[in-house]
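Single-chain item
Fold in token form
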Amino acid sequence: MTPEQLPVEQYEDQLVEKVTRLTAMMSPFNAPAVEVFRSPVSHYRMRAEFRVWHEGDDLYHIIFDQQTHERIRIDRFPAASELINQLMPRLIGALRDNQTLRFKLFQIDYLSTTSNQIVVSLLYHRKLDAAWQQAAETLRDTLRSEGFDLHLIGRATKTKIVLDQDFVDERLQVDGQEMIYRQVENSFTQPNAAINIKMLEWALDSTRHARGDLLELYCGNGNFSLALARNFRRVLATEIAKPSVASAQFNIAVNQIDNVQIIRMAAEEFTQAMNGVRSFNRLEGINLQSYECETIFVDPPRSGLDADTVAMVQGYPHILYISCNPQTLCENLATLSATHQITRLALFDQFPYTHHMECGVLLRRR
């Protein structure tokens, strides 16, 4: 099976295996039955990255097999969105015939949306000059004339040339309401838009009757914060990455949400502030004591929550935890289960045809 052929006929068996594996992992914590959220079987990835291979006059996308390290030519990639697949051959064809744009080009990154916007980054092992920019502008204009809502970026060592903008604006229908999310090139975004919607709606349903305010750690561009705002009086959210914070602030404004406050802090720093270990100028003017948070939401990186943050999280009656690594989630649950009981468990098939699982748990204080 090649990357140009998805094993669609194996999807059901693979999903059953994931449900079985997650159930076994959660059995020590007396978790309820898994709620399963299926992915589309094709065109589910909204972003993709490919190396570029030069072979004489030819030029094409490749990926490397992780096991054999074999170089595999990619002319179509059915895991990626239809928009990416439509653009791939047209873009590579234009680059193949343009020496200025193809010279020492080694990678192409695509970030697309369900709203048919796409940003493409061309990565080079050379300095980009005025001739490159002029050729890139011509390529952009040509592709736009063919109907692609395209934004083009050039990257090289210590260089980033943005022709227009380095972001796209995604529009998602979440529980009957349209949400707009700015997504910046080279920043984290949810890769599977259909599953992202299901995660947001599950989180909304899980907090439907919540009271008071919400505290969120690792909020990114406000993906969950803004959707969940309708269920809470106020939302206080933290994020350390500057581009994500800027996107979150834009998303708050464009969605006309007035009860979300974003703080640029790492989760570990916020834990120190809450515990009185350190004071931060970034918290000036924010009265943490005025928040009545009965629910905390966390969506940490693969490493999970550090020990101090786990201890802080235990102080909240309700914990909503989205995990991209069930192994580190279980490590955190070994501590959290002493004070909290899992009341809901969900599997979100963010990455079909892979071993990876995304899951969510709702915990209530015992």
Residues 23 and 323 are 15 Å apart (CA to CA). The radius of gyration is 22 Å.
